[in-house]
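Data card: per-record layout.
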Amino acid sequence: MPTIQPTEHKSSTLMEIGEGAERRKGFTSFVSKITLNVPGYDNIECTGDTRADKKSSMDSAALFMLYKLEQRGKIAIEETLEV
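The structure for this 83-residue chain is written out next.
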């Protein structure tokens, strides 16, 4: 199981967080770091994007981990067409 560690960042000034429809303004942001120990291989660490809430920052880190595992040939991500 991976471990995910979110970190909260507070600002005294209003900041914009995220992109597109996910864009929000606030004084608090979160960044999550995910670590996965693959037995017989190594530890893989990734840091997700800055997000306005903890859950979204954890989702971002998990997505980065999936892409890194694909780059290393450990998994294959198949894209599907939406109807």
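Known properties of this structure: Residues 54-71 form the longest helix (18 residues). DSSP finds one helix and three strands in the chain.

See the next section for split statistics.
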